[in-house]
């Protein structure tokens, strides 16, 4: 019986009241009217615009329209998304900072987080003396601008604003950038299960991440990849061992990967793609991350 599916009533805030839905925890920093940095804890914040090769990288934030955060973003256009590591004292302080209805002055008295100036270059938007401060305890920060090119229509019955936040800059503690480039190691990221029972917020740590290889049954035979490589551009030849480096790339992405390598080869005046050149392109990509 316990393995049978049963209906669950879809309540308001279904993600926390009618389901188990893991969410990130971030502190959104914004500037209030007197130019002081406000920290608001938020979980409904996810990648929204993911445009290949493109100029558009954006998050969507769902925030109560009368929150300091939503009002500050709409007025100043800028904010930072500070991803804080999982420590109980940080989560405890987030719950305190998440108490609705307090002014920036009232709530920031209770903040245990250390603010420091934004790392953005260039002048802040008109009318602002600076960008919002960032949180020193964060392991990574997205510095963002509200993107009005993608306006999400306000939903009349919703008391929330759906804000598209274009990512201007990502910064990360050096240690974690190293892990990112080596593909080894993860910060301790908190997981929020929400304000489940109208009494308490629930958080958990994630366990040690593990990797799973791309199934070898999905690998394309090297001859099939070579055929796709050879016909992409008649001026560029591919060694078989170079093609072997991309047999794990899913077919739908293969053309894009080949195009990237061919573009890099042409930039360097190379006409034969070797496995060493593939490694060089890969290394360059990693160091650009
Ligand atoms: C962990 C956590 C996550 C939260 N996530 C959200 C959210 O995604 N959207 C939202 O509107 N409120 C969320 N809240 C409630 C806000 O933090 C609360 O409305 C707070 O008053 C916002 O602060 P501000 O007015 O300074 O922006 C969350 C609270 C906590 C503690």
Mean pLDDT: 91
Q: What spatial form do the alpha-carbon principal axes imply?
A: globular
Please state the CA-atom Rg, rounded to the nearest Å. 23 Å
Largest sheet: 7 strands, antiparallel
Helix content: 25-40%
Report the CATH C-level class of the largest domain. Mainly Beta
Number of strands: 13
CATH topology of the largest domain: Pnp Oxidase, Chain A
Q: What compounds are bound to the protein?
A: flavin mononucleotide
The structural class is: alpha+beta
Tell me the strand order in the biggest sheet: 2-1-5-8-9-4-3
CATH superfamily of the largest domain: Electron Transport, Fmn-binding Protein, Chain A
Rounded to the nearest angstrom, the distance between the terminal CA atoms is: 49 Å
Please render the helix and strand layout as text:
Elements: H1 14-17, E1 26-31, E2 37-42, E3 45-50, E4 57-64, H2 68-76, E5 78-83, H3 88-97, H4 104-108, E6 115-116, E7 134-135, E8 140-146, E9 160-172, H5 174-182, E10 190-195, E11 201-205, H6 222-232, E12 237-238, H7 240-244, H8 251-267, E13 272-273, H9 275-288
Parallel strand pairs: 12-13
Antiparallel strand pairs: 1-2, 1-5, 3-4, 4-9, 5-8, 6-7, 8-9, 10-11
Helix pairs in contact: 6-8
The structure holds flavin mononucleotide.
Flavin mononucleotide (FMN) is lined by residues 25, 38, 40-44, 62-64, 67-69, 94-95, 98, 100, 160, 192, 201.
């Amino acid at each position: 019986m316990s393995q049978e599916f049963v209906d669950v009533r879809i309540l308001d805030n279904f993600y926390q009241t009618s389901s188990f839905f893991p969410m990130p925890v971030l502190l959104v920093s914004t500037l209030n009217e007197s130019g002081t940095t406000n920290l608001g804890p938020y979980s409904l914040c996810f990648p929204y615009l993911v445009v290949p090769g493109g100029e558009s990288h954006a998050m969507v934030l769902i925030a109560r329209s009368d929150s300091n955060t939503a009002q500050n973003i709409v007025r100043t256009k800028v904010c930072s998304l500070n991803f804080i590591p999982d420590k109980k004292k940080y989560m405890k302080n987030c719950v305190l900072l998440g108490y609705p209805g307090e002014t920036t002055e009232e709530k920031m008295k209770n903040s245990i987080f250390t603010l420091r100036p934004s790392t953005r270059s260039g002048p802040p938007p008109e009318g602002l003396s600076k960008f919002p401060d960032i949180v020193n305890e964060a392991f990574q920060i997205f510095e963002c601008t509200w993107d009005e090119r993608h306006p999400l229509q306000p939903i009349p019955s919703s008391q929330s604003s759906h804000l598209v936040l274009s990512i201007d800059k990502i910064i990360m503690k050096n240690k974690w950038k190293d892990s990112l480039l080596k593909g080894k190691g993860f910060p301790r990221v908190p997981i929020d299960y929400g304000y489940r029972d109208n009494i308490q917020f629930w958080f958990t740590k994630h366990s040690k991440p593990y990797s799973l290889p791309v199934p070898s049954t999905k690998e394309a035979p090297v001859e099939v990849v070579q055929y796709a490589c050879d016909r992409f551009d008649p001026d560029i030849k591919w060694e078989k061992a170079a093609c072997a480096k991309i047999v794990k790339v899913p077919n739908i992405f293969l053309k894009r990967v080949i195009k990237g390598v061919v573009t890099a080869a042409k930039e360097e005046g190379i006409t034969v793609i070797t496995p060493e050149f593939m490694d060089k392109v890969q290394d360059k990509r990693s160091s650009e991350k």
